[in-house]
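REQUEST ID: PR-0412
SUBMITTED BY: lab tech R.K.
PRIORITY: routine
TASK: structure prediction, single protein chain
INPUT:
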Amino acid sequence: MQKKNKRKIIIRPLHEKCPFCVDKTVPSLKKVEVLGKFLTDRARIMSRERSGVCTKHQKILSAEIKKARFLALLTVTER
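STATUS: complete
OUTPUT:
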């Protein structure tokens, strides 16, 4: 039997460079509208590949989103 060639799925980032590195800013829970851009329609945190954020800022971003949810600045789930 011949082996089937599996297609590799390549997810291209929506943004070429990290928006926080370009603007030289750091994600903050005070900027709720900025944090909301990195959530899906079901209020889940987007992956690094999908959002285009670098590793350093993705860790900070996810921590800030969790803090904002705790303080009820962001919704935990969409209704």
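NOTES: The helical segments are 19-23, 32-36, 48-51, 55-70.
REVIEWED BY: pending
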